[in-house]
Amino acid sequence: MVTITEIASWLGLDVTDERSLRHFATDSRSELTEGLYVPIQGARVDGHSFIDGAIDQGATVTLWKKGIPLPDADIVVLEVEDPLAALQHIATRYLKLVSPKVVAITGSNGKTSTKDMVESVLKTTYRTHKTSGNFNSDIGMPLTILMMPRDTEVAVLEMGMSGFGDIEFLSRLAEPDIALVTNIGESHAEHVGGRAGIAKAKLEITAGLKPDGHLFLDGDEALLAGVTGERIGYHHTNTFVIEQAEATFLGTTFQFAGATFRIPVLGKHQVRNAAYAIATARALGVADEVIQAGLDEVKLTPMRMERLVYHKTAVINDAYNASPTSMNAAIETVAELDGYPTRVVVLGDMYELGDQERELHASVGKRITLPVSHAILVGAKGRYIAEGITDPSVVVEFAETVDQAATLLRPLLGEQTIVLLKASRGVALEQILTDLNKI
């Protein structure tokens, strides 16, 4: 933990207060007992207006923009030119003070699953701290760093983007020892000029990479072909090759770089994510048998290829988010699992695809062929998926809402059925599970 005195000194302020801080937040409604509140000024909302709420939540200190009237309340005020910049600065100083090995993770898909796997493997050997939830932005990552225990040995930091420069900023702040680029998809394509722009933006993760650091990347991605790094993938020309992945509903077994591993997770794309974790752990000196022990304990963030059973029906809940790349991978997983005569994909809208959203939805439809038997398509954009389905053996049905999708799904449930749920976050497709519980 960090003290108020330390934060003040890093900001060039003369404040003596040895109280330690346990919580850090920009939202006045968050847990702030013994905490630092950072008011952010947005286009519509000024966080300074909510200082009373932050104090009610237990905040003991706040960063405060100079020129704004000071709060008339019992709280330590550290006046700064820019609270967000000050937050980022103190996070940088604290990271240097703790001095852990830093593993930075970015990519269009798989960031969070890879983060979970890396953390599960490394915590077998090191005191490890990872990004919580989607705290992967210029606000979220500094908060993640400040929540890091003082004895942390490895920090696993997820880095997100909405445009050029975002990941470069985060990389320079964190100065990673190991950087992972999981893949190049389509999300945010409208902001950076397509997939080539996405690749360029994701590779900004190398901006702060230490000179002797490792860069692990998707070796099967043509857009990364000219990048110097350690390549991971299924093609035999990669630095580290994945082979013979075999999946059941209980998990996947595969060979990677001369050894056999297993994960309690479905999907070839998740095998690649596990391979990143293995390569990272090996780079930090963890033995393969210890790595496997960590993989055995992997618990992915909910709604990411989550295996569930509802009314004797196998369900893959991958409804946290979606892009064409991740949706295709999930459909492939369902198609490869044996023992299910009825295979249902419930798919919904994908967002942030730009001008090509109709074509990209239809490209997913091309992947829906036998042995997938049913496709339930949810929402206006979900209907575009049907434009790509050419296999007449697939039963295609449409739903305007998640409730309607549940109604269509209900007659298909049973021991010989497997169901995939996949859509962008705004669709909230996982609500189907709530409806199924009402049966």
From TrEMBL:
The reaction(s) annotated as catalysed by this protein in its Swiss-Prot or TrEMBL entry are:
D-alanyl-D-alanine + UDP-N-acetyl-alpha-D-muramoyl-L-alanyl-gamma-D-glutamyl-meso-2,6-diaminopimelate + ATP = UDP-N-acetyl-alpha-D-muramoyl-L-alanyl-gamma-D-glutamyl-meso-2,6-diaminopimeloyl-D-alanyl-D-alanine + ADP + phosphate + H(+)
Domain Mur ligase C-terminal residues, every copy:
303-425
| Coiled-coil region | none
| Keyword Ubl conjugation tagged | no
Q: Mention any Pfam family matching this sequence.
A: Mur_ligase_C
- Keywords assigned by UniProt, alphabetized: ATP-binding, Cell cycle, Cell division, Cell shape, Cell wall biogenesis/degradation, Cytoplasm, Ligase, Nucleotide-binding, Peptidoglycan synthesis
Family, per the entry? Belongs to the MurCDEF family. MurF subfamily.
Q: What is this protein called?
A: UDP-N-acetylmuramoyl-tripeptide--D-alanyl-D-alanine ligase
| Taxonomic source organism | Exiguobacterium oxidotolerans
Give the encoding gene's name: murF
